[in-house]
Amino acid sequence: MVNVCSTVVDMVKEELPLHEESLVLSEDVKTGLVLVDIINGFCTVGAGNLAPTDPNEQISRMVKESTRLAKVFCEKKWPVFAFLDTHHPDKPEHPYPPHCLVGTEESNLVPSLKWLENESNVTIRRKECIDGFLGAVEEDGSNVFINWVKSNEIKVILVVGICTDICVFDFVASTLSARNRGFLAPLEDVVVYSRACATFDFPNHLARSIKGALAHPQELMHHIGLCMAKGRGAKVVNEVSLHPVEKL
Asked: C-alpha distances in angstroms, 26 versus 29, 30, 73, 160?
């Protein structure tokens, strides 16, 4: 089964090559870091209905890389925006089972990022929907994310988190549309860091045993999510460094 899945992924990557770039962070270009749903309910083993049941290499790498970036941004006091998926029990999010309920540890940042709550350059937004851009809309129609971009005069956002093809992609797609409409000036580029993104694994042999379930092979959907983001106009990178030569 593993060999078959690997062959399919290789075939897709050959037909949909990504051609990833690199990003150099510099004081000269105002860059903001956006963390999407790096919370226990999606990343910590056994933490909830949508959390991994076993240690997962892709998710662990995403958390590690995201934490490393967050430390750099906070040391330099560069702007950071963190979305936390948080739901009320009487407002289900179909087709997903109850997850990341308000007041539970599921909806909180993973242990390696918990310290962000005390950083002055960090904006935290709890959202009740997949798309963080829509989840940032207030009752008066204002948008916390748009205000963050404008008030910090951000030209580039670097997006990391989970899930590559769901919450990350939806946020990226909406942000690109808003940028194209002129709602996010001075924002110019949306960059997705592939090594700091991840998605979940639900292979076909498991999905077949559950009525109505949809298979979700991790590596395949991660790649497709990145391709879709690039197709919408995002830049996809597999390396992030500090100007002039410092590696993160």
From this structure: 6, 8, 11, 18
